[in-house]
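Problem statement: downstream parser choked on a complex file, so we are re-checking the raw output for the 2-oxoadipic acid run. The parser issue turned out to be on our end (a line-ending mismatch), but while we're here, posting the original submission so the record is complete.
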Amino acid sequence: MTDLATIAERLDQAATSRTVTPQFGADAGLDVPTAYRIQEAVVAHRTARGERLVGLKLGLTSRAKMAQMGVDEVIWGRLTDAMAIADGGTISLADHIHPKAEPEVAFLIGGGTIAAVAPAIEVIDSRYVDFRFTLPEVIADNTSASGFVVGAWQPVPAGIDNLGVLLEVDGRTVQIGSTAAILGDPRRALAEAVRLAAADGVELTDGSVLLAGAATAAVPLKPGAHVRAVVESLGAASLKVT
Ligand code: OOG
């Protein structure tokens, strides 16, 4: 079995050098609890460089994502301040490996509950060759977390369980979904995130951001693309790619 610190180091180096790393494979003997310990060590490399934890993300909350990635469990990862992209901001492909975007809903946590909601885009960028991984491998890789855009925060409207979600690239709709795809109701993301993170001794503190999970499959980012996620009643979040 490969040493946990060595795996964490390899994943961190892949991210900072923007080069893929081979999958660890069965020989590494990774299971889910071990993978979360590696994730903690991977993110510790970031915090050691001065990054600050600002929230959590859920992944594989929708059937579309589970089917796309060939796994079938909800997973969670850590968000840092360095991953935040301004709404309407620009990211460079040169700073990534093979990034993809997915439309999401973001929650702002306050008083232990959902204080505000916003449309969001998550940029995922697996550190593995061909964006392929097993469940423990993607957990160890901080669930492919790379960047996130949060649109305007607003009070939580009465029903957010079945809002239409679009992902547009250069004004063309490339993915259509519904917030219902996120755990049946994205508000379930809070309880799920609290439960999953607590198992690793992590709390979702007030002021944290929670990305509830993708409402559609992810779309690869191309140079020059203008990407917009539109969530019915909540508005839009966007980014540009150079
Ligand atoms: C894993 C992360 C997926 C989501 O919202 O489902 C994810 C991946 O597909 O690389 O963040």
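For whoever reads this later: Helices lie at 4-17, 32-48, 63-69, 135-140, 188-198.
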